[in-house]
Structure formats: C-alpha cells, structure tokens
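Priority: low. Protein: histidine kinase. Input follows.
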Amino acid sequence: MIQSPPSPLARARAFVIDVCTPAGPPVPLCGRSRRGWVRKLPYVFAWLFTALLLPLTGYVLGREYGLGFGLALSLGVAQAVPLLVAVRRPLLAWAIAFAADLVAAVAVLSEPVHGDWPWPWPPMTVIGMLLLMLAVGMRERRPTLVAVWLATGLAGAALRSLAPERSSSNVWITLFVIGGMLMLIAGALRERGDARRALAEQETISEAERARRTLLEERTRIARELHDVVAHHMSVITVQADSAPYRIEGLPEQAREEFGTIAATARESLTEMRRLLGVLRSEDASGGAGGTGGTERAPQPGVARIPQLVEATVRSGLPVELAVPEPLPDALPQTVDLSAYRIVQEALANVVRHAPGAATRVSVSVDETGTGLMVLVVNTAAADRDAPPVETGGTGHGLVGMRERVRLVGGTLDTGPLPEGGFRVAALLPFTAETETETETKTKAEEDSPAP
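Result:
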C-alpha cells in the first residue's frame, strides 16, 4: 500500500514539536566535566545573577516604567528565577522568561512614557535573556537555537514598531546580535565537546574489542599448539589398543573387541581433532584451512629447546643469562613443557621490543615442593633509557598469551615493573593442574567451612 506524503501542516507541526523538544535528559550544564569547580560554576552564576537581577528588575519596572509594585515584583520574579531552572532545563527557562518579558512589555505599553529608558527590553531583561540564550546554546540543537534567536529578534522588532516613540535606542538589535553570537559560540563548543566524547567512547569500545579479539586469537593459537600434544596421547592410545591382542597372551575375545572399540574411538577422535584444527587455523596458515601439512603439524617445542631460544636471542644483541637444571626434569607434562617454552619466548620478545639491550636473566627450575615448574625472566632497565622502544604501540599479545597459558595448566603468574627499573615475569606451572570445576568446588568448600 502506497502511503501519501505528509501534508505541509503535518510537517510544520512535526517541526515545531522537534524544535520545542529539549535535547537529551536534564543533565546540569557542565555536569560532565571532570573538574568539580567547573560543575559548580553554573549554579554559582545562576544564584548570583538571580540575586542581582530580581530586585533590580522589580525596582526598574515599578519606578522607571510606571508599573504597580505587585506587578513589577511578580514580573521580576518571572524573569529572574528562570536562571536557576536554566542550569538543568535551559529551553524551559528561556520560554518562561521570554513569556514574562512579553507580558512586561505589553503592560508597559498601557503606562505613560517615563523618561528615555530602553524599549522594549529594560537593561536587566537584556542581561537575563543573554544569559538564558547562552545556556540554550550550551544544550540545544541547531534548529532550536535558530528558533530561539528568531523569536527573540522578531518579538523585539514587533514591539519596537508598536511604539517607536518610546525610546531612541535600538536595544532589541543589540540583544538580537549579541544573543546570536553567544548561541553560535556556545553551540560550536558544545558540538565540539559532544564529538570529543563520542570519539572517546568509540575509542573505549574499540580498545575493548581489540582486547577481546587479542584474547580470542591467543586462545586459538594455544589450542592449535596443543593439538599436537593431545594428538600424541590419542596416537599412543590407538597403538596400545591395537597392539594389546598381540602383546597380551590368552586375551578373551570380549577384551579383544573392547580394545578394538577403544582403538576405533581413538582414531575417530583424532580425525575430529584434525578437523577442529582446520577450523582454528588462520587463513594464512601453511597448508590452508583444511590442510594437514606445514609448520602447524611440526612437533611443539619444550624446556629442552629453551637454550637454543636463548642462544638465538643473544645473537640478536640482547645479553641473556640462562639457568636451567642439569639434567632437565624427566617426563614433564607436555602442556607444562610447551607453556614454559612459550612464556620464555614471549618474555624475551617483550624485552627485545620494549627494553633493547637490557641485561636479562632466565631461570627454569622445579619448585621447592617438587610439584611444579618455576619460570622466571627478569630484565634490567634498557641500556639507553632515552632511546625509544622498538615497538611503542604494543598489542599486549605477550602478557595475554602468558596469562592464558598459565590459566590453562592451573598455575600462577606474577608480572610487573621493578623498583630499580626493568620488568619481572614469574610463572609457576603445576605438574598436575586442577580443573576450573575442581578449583571452584574447593573455593566454595573453603568459604562454607566454619571458622575455627
């Protein structure tokens, strides 16, 4: 069904409603400033000018313009008190004061001329209207500012034309020009502030998205690397299950079938893992998304290759001192073995990027209880403190990767700058990691246990 376009009257009505609708919630002027004194400034000015203009407006309207005391005082209140409302609702305050100004001008028309005072706006009215127009400019949209500006100018011109003999001054033109300039400047500053706040919010959102994307990339990378670790175990299960009937004499037929089922299930699981690896591979990974060859299928490094890593780092110009137990611990869990190597790799890469030339010490040892592997990388401050780092932006991949690898094995990670300069990375990787469910259960039991 084709809808007919809205009539000019409907469009005009919609425009008027849009112009008369305040922009946003009644947040105080300057209420978003980080400085406390700036947030209080609109209240101070509102109370100060209200205290000054209220008695002066009532006095001048009564004595110089010939209005009665009660009417003059009432109009003075209606013109000055809206300044207090303008702190939160500038458009409403301007509308109240503008209506009071029109009523005062019409009331003055019924009185004889008293001297050559400005017409149609007394000096106090001009000051109040300028302040209100400034407040409107700091809050409202451009169409509303134009409407306020034109309403003020047209009202002044109409009243001036009704009684041109009342005053020789064109104070309405002064209000029209200066008020327009104030609203223009205030509106430009407000739009600039809104743009800066929107940019800051967008940067915050982008930073959060980058951090989330970095975390997901690191987890995907770790999952790809752990594929070989799990695949090795699955392959061992398959070989043992397939060879069991030949290694064990007198095996019942039921047991042979069970071992055959175990081997088939292991091979199926290994196939599914390779498919999962194809999904986790990045687009530029060798062998394609679904390939089976390349570096991602190569054996994963471990603690035994840390000396080679340190040697390569030394050749790049970074002085590194290595302390590794002799002999290396036997039968390290493969996840711990891989995590220890990657943590040392990431820590050395961070030193090269952010503190080139800094003396670095790498230590890998079994902890005192013999239940975990302790990895420690400590570097001093850069040799040339004034030299800029090789990489100033920093994506945070190194620390994110370390945290994820430590969390994977249920260990602990301590990183941070040193008082004398430099940085420290200390990771404890337990040989037997608790699952997250076990950790939560243990924590809950400790919380529920009665205090001694």
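The chain is about 60% helix and 5% strand. The CA atoms of residues 54 and 76 lie 5 Å apart.
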